[in-house]
Amino acid sequence: MAQFPPVKDRMKMSRMDMPEQDPNVRNTNFEEVALGYNVGLALNEAQRCLQCKTPTCIDMCPVNIKIDQFIERIVAEDYVGAYNKIREDNFLPAICGRVCPQDKQCESTCVLTKKFSSVAIGRLERFVADKVMSLNMIPAPVKAKPTGKKVAIVGSGPAGLACAADLVGMGHEVTVYEALHELGGVLVYGIPEFRLPKAIVRQEIQRLADAGVKFVKNAVIGKTITIDELQQEEGVQAIFIGVGAGLPKFMDIKGEELAGVYSANEFLTRVNLMKAYKFPEFDSPVLDPEGRNVVVVGGGNTAMDAVRTAKRLGAKTARIIYRRSEDEMPARTEEIHHAKQEGVIFQTLTNPLEYLGDKNQRVNGVKLQKMELGEPDKSGRRRPQEIKGSEYIEPIDIAIVAIGNGSNPLLLETNPDIKTNKWGNIEVNPETMETSKKGIFAGGDIVTGGATVILAMGAGRKAAKAMNEYLNR
Amino acid sequence: MFKIIEARFLSKDVKLFKIAAPRIAKKRLAGQFVILRLDEQGERIPLTIADSDDKQGSITIIAQGIGKTTKKLNTLNTGESILDVVGPLGKPSHVENFGTAVCIGGGVGTAIAYPIAKALKQVGNHTITINGARSKDLVILEEEMKKFSDEAYITTDDGSYGHHGFVTDILKKLISEGRKINFVLAIGPIPMMRAVTEATRPHGIKTVVSLNPIMIDGTGMCGGCRVIVAGKSEFACVSGPEFDAHNIDFDNLINRNKTYLDLEKEATLKFEHECKLVNQKPV
To answer: What contacts A260, CB < 8 A, 6 or more positions away?
Structure first.
């Protein structure tokens, strides 16, 4: 059994790189970019952890994973133990290890960060989940004594799945409703295969199904069935709303209505969910980026996903247009780094003013404006200001708008009794995630606005706890 | 899987399907649509629900075989199934007693105009229907429309049945005769809806059309179906599919609907070729 080296030796060890597909190979395929640590790399990396008495990394984790303890289990080569330790706080480690913004959360306060580089907590989390999955040693769900109480989860994204997992574990009868024809929400329609293999999402969902969670696809709550019907006709005693923030924002600038201007949601859904890259084997088309100039507006993970997808589909140029500088980009550092390696061009401090079209109203150009950074705004980031007279036009063939999502009104239209704020997000008691309507809880992007998988999961779990208390009242 | 309870052709390439979908049947109101996907490789397409039967737990859709998916759909028969059907989506038609209402259906659009005509009649409107098609054999739902009409007109482009000409000929005639028309509904090909819109515009008659932009999810998530209404971008799947016709930017709708024209042709040709290979007549 391996052990931690003396502290002064640990500081001399450098952060282990994770093996990756070669950038010029992977930018032509949809297979996963990062290949994950092997046992040796994981051990080396885990041994770097200083096992702080008061670990700051845990405070920065939205679900407070016991990071020091699971890393200690890796060093002890007890992978199942490490997995169980993570699972106490995080239901989807294989997914979060891949998509969490660790650099802005746990890893940001690692004591090693200041002088050296932080322990690669995300990579270790992923290693543990993949290892235990590959050994087929994921512990079977604990079958709780059935309570006979019925709960419904609206939306099968990260918030809903995490909530379902906890509630089924408490013995409740759980049904998850999904509007689309596939389960997983943003994990399947949004995040591309090269960043999060769908097989992993399917495995996690299968585990829930094995534990007794029922899944109903093609059910739009608010349309096919209403919240009130679930309560009154189907005997559901508590409901969790985790529908996400699925209503793409546009900038309301001239030319956004032109053919060839996509929301990132549409572009990614066509490629990921509908498999348009396999057209005509699959029926859904997408404008082919091959040999074309593609711009993606935005600096978040969705923007990176869209631009790297366009690159993989053969775009002549795949560019990010972002109005602030790279430092302010909300995307994971690793995704920005990967995008650059793959040949994505970053045009920061630039903002689109207008899209131009040809005689058939197809987009063929974009008018851009240079920006500079001013004083910090409410978000703490320096506010971008336009540089007058810096406008210029560039020819493009496809534009993808990735500037975030507003709250989707579909479900709430039929339930005005669920209180929302001025942005249309559901108001909840932050301790219990309970809404203004009795027995209805909510969490994830529909409450916070567009955020992260881990925050959504954390909210789902918090709600599950409160729902359990509510059901046992 | 959603089972097809009944499938029959209404005309050469227009087919009616009754599909077992009890949850949708229970909720559906006139003007709403479903999105369906035929199989694992299939695309998601929106189709307006023509009718529903809560007791039987069925919905009726009527499809014209134009592109690959509708042509493939029209090869399906009673007893076969459709992989995914989701709905009812969109806002229901606004139905009230306007006074005199004219309901115009063009081609397969009649399938959508019909339930709304029925609803308008049931709330007391003097209901005039105009049922247009290219030729006699393409006229659908003639008897059904008649049943809920105070006055019923048929037009064909080639003159093989009813009035020789366009639906707008009848509409313009009614208007010029000084008939007091309070409401016009037009559903059919975009050029037809647009012609109706222009015919009523000078007279300020409230006119509603049902739009058919390209959609994926039908729940507001993708934004692909955005249309310009009164200068503002609207998602047809959640704010529509019906809009005030006089506010619609039809040019934009036409152009956006052409986004995948080449690819759609390619898919359709490939499908027809495959049908020939298995010696199956494409419909």
So the answer is: A287, A362, A363, A397, A398, A399, B259
